[in-house]
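Ops channel
N.P.: pipeline sanity check, posting one input/output pair.
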């Protein structure tokens, strides 16, 4: 669920927002964030953290392909 919410979010989402949306404790959200970070490692997406807010973004190493797609 965490991955899906972050994927569709158009802005960074705070841990407290995620906890409320997912009906989980902030600690459980942090555990899920750590697992998601490990799962995304080496792929085309990464989890960006800005203070207490999180967002799924494209990894910089795939920027050329993304830029070609976007034109």
């Amino acid at each position: 669920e965490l991955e899906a919410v972050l994927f569709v979010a158009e802005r960074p989402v705070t841990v407290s927002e995620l906890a409320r949306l997912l009906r989980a404790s902030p600690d459980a959200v942090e555990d899920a964030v750590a697992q998601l970070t490990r799962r995304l490692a080496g792929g085309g997406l990464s989890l960006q953290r800005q203070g207490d807010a999180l967002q799924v973004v494209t990894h910089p190493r795939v920027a050329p392909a993304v830029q070609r797609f976007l034109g």
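N.P.: looks fine end to end. Helices lie at 2-8, 15-22, 26-40, 63-70.
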